[in-house]
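can u pls check wat happens w/ adenosine monophosphate
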Amino acid sequence: MNKMTIDHVAFKGKRALVRVDFNVPLDEQRRITDDTRITESLPTIRKILSEGGQALLMSHLGRPKGKPKPEFSLRPVAEHLSTLLDRNVPFAEDCVGPKAREAAGALQEGECLVLENLRFHPEEEANDDTFAKELAGLGDVYVNDAFGTAHRAHASTEGITKYLQPCVAGYLMQKELDYLGRAVGNPARPYVAVLGGAKISGKIDVIQNLMTRVDALLIGGGMMFTFYKAEGREIGKSLLEEEKVELARKILDEAAAKKVNLLLPVDCVVGDKFESSAATRTVDAAAIPKDWMGLDIGPKTIELFSAELRKAKTVVWNGPMGVFEMEKFAAGTKAVARVLAEVTKGGTVTIVGGGDSAAAIVQAGLGKAVSHVSTGGGASLELLEGKVLPGVAALSDLDE
Ligand code: AMP
């Protein structure tokens, strides 16, 4: 990565404005139900504080749509961070204006503070220049550790970088870019990608970009049925994106012409309804009954995919193989998680994209058994599509 990182800055006496991704899930009592995103940024925060710098932590939470809404306040995060760091972490009731300036002014060396939700102001997502300048006025240097929002050009991820120098990547950002960047640019081979999830539409660009780069592309999840349809098969009541059938056909033709090893499931588990109480059957790909719907990959496919994954030296996985939220249709997703854990032990680099596949691997208790679980669903997909993330492009170049 040709960008400056947190290791290139001496933080002593400096006020660092740190964009973190504290968009954590809260329950109805506003308790944090999963603090992974907070704990993942601790190394960055600790580094700044231990050097005698001050860290002003800014984040969004939920979708308050540009208005202050108490249910999306970051106050519970500041309280939780106090526990994690074992010190008082003050909270500023706004991220700009007098309240923010006052709280920032009261900070001492080696202390940090959480600013209120950036998205209480519509200017954040609009990447408003005046707002970006106001945010920048609170600090001396800028650190971006929010990989999950790096694919968005917002005031706190992009606009702000025009007004602070240097702008550097935090440790979490660096780790994400190291793993995903290497997979995109210089993967150890064989390089195998596993794609699943509900729809083709969100993954077309990833499929097309990966097709020519990987040694094998394994496709499961709801999108497999649109490919089946393109092959002229009966798919019963399975998920279908009618308007994508043509595109699926083109992708299959292109894969054949370029001799891409694109593997579709050879069997699937079907249910008589989309419910956890559904009756189930395992059928070959060519024998999906008319009134049934495909909800998971079948055992022969698990074998086929596992064999490809065992040959790999780099694996990228995005999207569950079936409706893993229902136990009866979770076997395919769990099997992929297990094989990834197994090959990781053998030295294969295994990367799980954010979102549902990250949730699935954590649910299988194997989150720590793979090389890297990304904290950014959309951002990791955009990297795999070959796009440049605006929040990364905006950071200071190493030779600046
Ligand atoms: P995505 O957000 O596109 O990664 O999709 C994740 C969702 O895809 C999960 O909620 C799964 O339940 C769903 N999914 C996976 N396989 C199927 C399938 N065969 N039919 C319907 N939904 C599926």
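The longest strand covers residues 15-19.
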